[in-house]
Amino acid sequence: MTNTLKPRRQFESLADAAERTGLSIRTLRKRIAVGELPAYRSGPRVLRVDPADVDRLMVLVPTA
């Protein structure tokens, strides 16, 4: 019998995501509103994002 546990998904608050990336909470909320950033709600006030989804917003700018 093998034990195949799925890795737990990690979530962070908008404040934590903003601090980690240097983006504002307002910018993150705008990205959620237009569908660019998935968000997860737990109750009426708790909103969380997956750090990997937030990281995907950050796109490398090519240089010459």
UniProtKB/TrEMBL annotation:
Domain of life: Bacteria
Transmembrane feature ranges: none
All residue ranges annotated as the Helix-turn-helix domain in the record: 13-58
Matches recorded under InterPro entries: DNA-bd_dom_put_sf (IPR009061), HTH_17 (IPR041657), SinI_DNA-bd (IPR010093)
Protein's name in the database: Helix-turn-helix domain-containing protein
Organism placement in taxonomy: Bacteria, Bacillati, Actinomycetota, Actinomycetes, Micrococcales
